[in-house]
Design goal:
With about 80 residues, the chain is an all-alpha fold. About 30% of the residues lie in helices and about 0% in strands. The chain has a domain of about 30 residues. The chain is elongated, with a radius of gyration of 31 Å.
């Protein structure tokens, strides 16, 4: 006996009523779904938390008088303060 004859064969494809397809009403098999947003959402949350929030806070601080160490004083300086840049 050869090694090929002892290998199990693949099961036959089931067709007809025995085979159930998961489908949503009103969707076709090639239709795009929004499941990708669930995979991207954690990365976007982390990006917003560690990049966008500090960036917006930096812009906020640039409009006030602040020495960089202590508390932000309530003295609003505005856009002319940024003129030296």
């Amino acid at each position: 006996m050869s090694a090929l004859s002892t290998m199990p064969t693949a099961p036959a494809r089931i067709s007809g009523p025995e085979r159930r397809r998961r489908s949503r009403p009103g969707s076709s098999p090639g239709e795009a779904r929004n499941i990708g947003y669930l995979f991207v959402a954690p990365a976007l949350v982390l990006y917003g938390l560690f990049v966008l929030v500090p960036f917006v806070h930096t812009i906020y601080l640039s409009f006030f008088t602040w020495d960089g160490i202590g508390r932000v004083r309530d003295t609003f300086v505005g856009v002319p303060h940024l003129g030296w840049l």
